[in-house]
Amino acid sequence: MRRTLILFIFALSASCVFGQDFSKSLSDAKSSYQSGNLDDARFAMQQMLNDLDIAIGKEVMKLLPSKMEQHAVNATNDNVTANTGFTGVLIHRDYGTEDKMVKIDIMGNSPLVGSLNAILSMPFIGNSGDGTQKQVKVQGYKGILQKSTDTETNKTEYTLQIPLNSSLLTLVVPDSNEGEVMKMVSTIPVGDIAKMVQ
């Protein structure tokens, strides 16, 4: 009951910020709850949380850099979606062109976070002997940097995954080297993003 009350208070105070859809969902949830229709109340609250996730995702998008090294942002590909029942907010941004497209994805409530945290807690597992996987630290957050090489083109792609509480930030950089990847990730305000998506 206390949790529901806190959610309603938060929802009431946030309704002026998140627009008419949020206000309508709040009103629907309240009237459904008062009439005893708990299923409809739950549905309206899920819609409200989706709206909240999308608003948070749009704020996170503003924090992401407009350029990644020499690669300009592809603003038309920016995408923020929400699925409160499963993952929460999903944020996507990419930079550059088809032959070298740098991608940032942030997934709220990622199912991979638990296994990544387990790997990060054991350094001997997180660092592979062949150099294809290693632990790195980015702005105080531990992450896993994975390197893969295409056998046909001999081009190397790096994937950096950083758990942020229950969310996961993933940076994919094709045709690159470790130094370039670490330079790119240093332009992402990881701590600020972690605070927003927790």
Topology:
Blueprint: H1 2-34, H2 38-63, E1 67-68, E2 71-72, E3 79-83, E4 88-97, E5 100-107, H3 113-120, H4 123-126, E6 133-138, E7 141-149, E8 156-164, E9 167-173, H5 178-185, H6 190-197
Antiparallel strand pairs: 1-2, 3-4, 4-5, 5-9, 6-7, 7-8, 8-9
Helix pairs in contact: 1-2, 2-6
Q: What can you tell me about this protein's structure?
A:
With 198 residues, the protein is of the alpha+beta class. Helices cover 44% and strands 29% of the residues. It has helices at 2-34, 38-63, 113-120, 123-126, 178-185, 190-197, and strands spanning 67-68, 71-72, 79-83, 88-97, 100-107, 133-138, 141-149, 156-164, 167-173. Strands 3-4-5-9-8-7-6 form a 7-stranded antiparallel beta sheet. Strands 1-2 form a two-stranded antiparallel ribbon. Strand 1 (67-68) and strand 2 (71-72) form a beta hairpin. Helix 1 packs across helix 2 (38-63) and helix 2 (38-63) packs antiparallel against helix 6 (190-197). The longest helix is centred in the N-terminal third of the chain and has 33 residues, at 2-34. 25% of the residues are buried.
- Which sheet architecture does the biggest sheet show? 7 strands, antiparallel
CATH class of the largest domain: Alpha Beta
CATH topology label of the largest domain:
Protein Transport Mog1p, Chain A
How many DSSP H or I helices?
Answer: 6
Strand order of the largest sheet: 3-4-5-9-8-7-6
What is the alpha-carbon Rg in Å?
20 Å
Structural class: alpha+beta
Kindly, what is the distance between the CA atoms of the first and last residues, rounded to a whole number of angstroms? 23 Å
CATH architecture of the largest domain: 3-Layer(aba) Sandwich
State the share of residues found in helices, binned by percent: 40-55%
The overall number of domains is 2
The beta-strand count equals 9
Q: What is the mean predicted local confidence, pLDDT?
A: 83
* Low-confidence regions: 1-19
| Percentage of β-strand residues | 25-35%
Order of helices and strands: HHEEEEEHHEEEEHH
The shape, in one word, is: elongated
